[in-house]
Amino acid sequence: MKLRFGAAKERPVSAVPRPAIIVLAVALAAQVAWHAASPRPVASASSLELPPPTAWLRASSLGEPIALAAALVLYLQAFDNQPGVSIPFKDLDYAAVEAWLERALELDPNSQYPLLMASHVYSQVPDEAKQRRMLDFVHRQFLKDPEKRWRWLAHAAITAKHQLHDTPLALKYAEEIARHARTAATWARQMRIFILEDMGEREAATILLGGLLAGGEVTDEAEIRFLTQRLEKLKSVEKSSAPSESR
Q1: Which phi and psi (to 5°) does residue 93 adopt?
Q2: Domains plus CATH for the chain?
Q3: pTM for the model
Q4: Tens digits of per-residue pLDDT, 204-240?
Q5: How many Cβ atoms from other residues are within 10 Å of residue 240's Cβ?
Q6: How close are the terminal C-alpha atoms of the chain, in Å?
Q7: CB neighbours of 17 closer than 8 A, spacing ≥ 6?
Q8: pLDDT tens-digit profile of 146-205?
Q9: Handedness of CA 46, 48, 52, 54 (dihedral sign)
Q10: DSSP string spanning the chain?
């Protein structure tokens, strides 16, 4: 007995019962309409949860705390840009943001990236309370290692002065750099002088500038020349304003 397999013939659409075609068309239209009406996925800024405790993270790092620290910051950095959605930095929970950055620094104290993110990214949002929170975070972390972290506090001072228009806060940060970061760049250690000048404290600025030059902290000839000219200018302004102030 021979079995012969032939190619199955395709049935034309006209052979399909009309009620079945109507049902299929309605189902397809309903599916398209449902997808069109469905809201796009929305990420919630509040869904950024606090990170695990540092001890737990250190134990789970399998002897690679530096790699885990980098992963924490990358996770935080990518959280605002999830598939199909985007969360503005200002909408993030900054208590959680601060905690993630702090955990990364605790795992890898030599890393500069968490402080870069705090001072250059998360402190630039149009929300004064969150800006101040990030600047305070940078300040506290600076005090733990001033010689390695002074750059970020210097940027915090600039942010405080030019964005928050809080000159006293900027002066506080500049003075902390001069007091604690002995190896900071000269321009960072000079910041307090120019902030005082902007505040109208010319006499205090003159004293500090004179002390800086007399103390021999500045050795570059170009810097010495610049600061000397600045000192002479401050003294001349004081002399010219003295008669009018005494009237």
Answers
A1: -75, 105
A2: 51-183 (1.25.40), 200-237 (no CATH)
A3: 0.70
A4: 777 767 766 676 666 777 767 777 877 787 777 666 6
A5: 9
A6: 130
A7: none
A8: 999 999 999 999 999 989 999 999 999 999 999 999 898 888 888 888 888 888 777 777
A9: negative
A10: ------PPPPPPGGGS-HHHHHHHHHHHHHHHHHHHHSPPP---GGG-PPPPPHHHHHHHTTT-HHHHHHHHHHHHHHHTS-TT----GGGS-HHHHHHHHHHHHHH-TT--HHHHHHHHTGGGSS-HHHHHHHHHHHHHHHHHSHHHHHHHHHHHHHHHHHTS--HHHHHHHHHHHHHH-TTS-HHHHHHHHHHHHHTT-HHHHHHHHHHHHHTT----HHHHHHHHHHHHHHHHHHHHHHHHHH-
Token pair listed for 231: 């000192």
